[in-house]
Design brief:
The chain has 378 residues and is mainly beta. It has four helices and 27 strands. The strands form three sheets. Strands 1, 3, 4, 5, 6, 7, 8, 9, 10, 11, 13, 14, 15 and 16 form a 14-stranded antiparallel sheet that branches.
Length: 378
């Protein structure tokens, strides 16, 4: 048992000591002076750090025909010893009459271009164009999920604060961990995803998010909330995580609201509230049934800005047991040793919710399409 505990500690880590909230330098501190920075091509580089971290590029697609998709590359390093990469695709069956189509495939012979802007592996390319405003993803890694997609940015991307990063550690000058998010909230999508049964037309709207967790993920965050909301005029995104008690259960929330060609608002003064929930018997987590998302701050020209999405989540689209493929006895011990029990609840209400935007004294309401996640880890 002691050997197994020490092995699990090396792999997933035991709970950390209580360092307190002063041991996280939230990106909100940067955002108090610089609410956001336009995401440059240089900031789109893969980092590929040689220490424990998880780096992702995730593409969400809301097709014009009503279908919802996710495409993702995950590149991770464990303790500077072992590097892995996976390509994930998901086709959501929003009607609920059939299972979602989910594939996760290990990648071989991974490589980056000289500028670290593009990624490749056997049977996969993820390429950023010269202008830095479009990604092209092509994959034949899985014969039942053949991908050929182009994402073109239609509004500036952004990071909260100066660099989009929260830093962890008791010495701010020498942090031992980090959390980064960069967003392209409003993109035009074209292309296809082909299964053995059919070819899906992905023409529509999309969101790209680059993220890096520069430490053991469950040490950085105990909870997550994410929303991608698309209306004809606006694209709204928000990402919130709550640290474990070791960092004072600190909430860090970044997000923005954009139109074609412009950032209306972006920053770190937002909030998420689970206004109703029900205990899920399988995961034993309080699954949200209604959520209120609020963006608040100033526009670039100094006007007061608020935006709200508030309402029921409808029938849950999926509940993802992150450790579902781990053998049962290891899963149980990992939970008791590290305090981790990660589940992701995914929602996309079929009854349209509204985005209510107020800029100065001008108010606008628009129905839109939503995808959201609420994640419980520890």
């Amino acid at each position: 048992m002691n050997w197994l505990k020490s092995t699990l500690s090396a792999a997933v880590g035991t709970q950390e000591p209580i360092y307190g909230p002063e041991a996280i330098q939230s990106v909100a501190q940067q955002a108090s002076e610089t609410p956001y920075t336009v995401l440059s091509k240089d900031q789109l580089r893969w980092k590929a750090y040689q220490y424990t971290n998880v780096e992702t590029q995730t593409f969400y697609i809301m097709a014009d025909d009503g279908n919802l998709f996710m495409v993702q590359v995950i590149y991770s390093n464990i303790a500077g010893i072992h590097t892995t990469a996976h390509f994930n695709t998901k086709i959501f069956n929003l009607k609920g009459d059939k299972p979602h189509v989910w594939h996760t495939d290990a990648l071989s012979n991974c490589m980056f271009d000289e500028q670290m802007h593009s990624f490749g592996a056997d049977n996969l390319t993820l390429t950023l164009n010269e202008e830095g405003d479009a990604y092209h993803i092509k994959s034949t890694v899985n014969a039942d999920s053949i991908v050929d997609i182009k994402f073109t940015r239609k509004a500036p991307g952004f990071v909260a604060g100066k660099d989009g990063t929260s830093y962890f550690g008791t010495d701010p000058k020498n942090p031992w961990g980090s959390m980064y998010h960069g967003f392209w909230p409003r993109c035009a999508v074209e292309g296809t995803l082909t299964t053995k049964e059919k070819t899906y037309d992905l023409t529509g709207r999309g969101v790209f998010i680059g993220a890096l967790q520069g430490m053991k993920p469950h040490h950085a965050a105990a909870r997550w909330n994410f929303i991608n909301f698309q209306t004809p005029t606006f694209s709204a995104v928000m990402m919130e995580f709550t640290t474990p008690p070791s960092y004072g259960s600190t909430k860090v929330n970044v997000g923005g609201v954009l139109k074609d060609g412009e950032i209306v608002y972006a920053g770190a003064s937002n909030s998420v509230t689970h206004t109703a929930s029900a205990q899920d018997p399988e995961s034993d987590w309080p699954e949200p049934t209604s959520i209120k998302w609020e963006w608040a701050g100033k526009t670039a020209d100094g006007q007061d800005f608020t935006a709200v999405v508030d309402g029921p989540l409808g029938k849950r689209q999926d509940r993802v047991d992150v450790m579902g493929e781990v053998p049962g006895f290891i899963k149980t011990i990992a939970g008791s040793v590290a305090g981790t029990r990660p589940y992701i609840f995914q929602f996309s209400p079929q009854e349209k919710l509204k985005l209510k935007v107020k800029v100065g004294e001008t108010e606008i309401e628009e129905e839109g399409t939503m995808f959201s996640e609420s994640t419980f880890i520890s």
